[in-house]
Design a protein that fits this description.
Length: 66
């Protein structure tokens, strides 16, 4: 049962990571005339999305095997 709990926790962490990454990607200036703000590094964010996906899938497999 411990493996299942660890897998579920890992899935939860992967979900949180995905949500944080999506929020960073979705940030837009409120007005068109606003000065440029922090730029989003889309390459780094794409990698973060893939890492979250892979972590979730790995933990789902661990939960299924248990």
């Amino acid at each position: 049962m411990e493996i299942l709990n660890l897998a579920l926790e890992g899935m939860h962490r992967a979900e949180q990571s995905l949500e944080k990454t999506a929020a960073r990607i979705a940030r837009l200036p409120l007005t068109v005339d606003a000065p440029p703000q922090d730029q989003v590094d889309l390459s780094a964010e794409a990698i973060a999305l893939l890492e979250a996906r892979n972590a979730f899938a790995a933990n789902a497999r661990a939960a299924r095997v248990d």
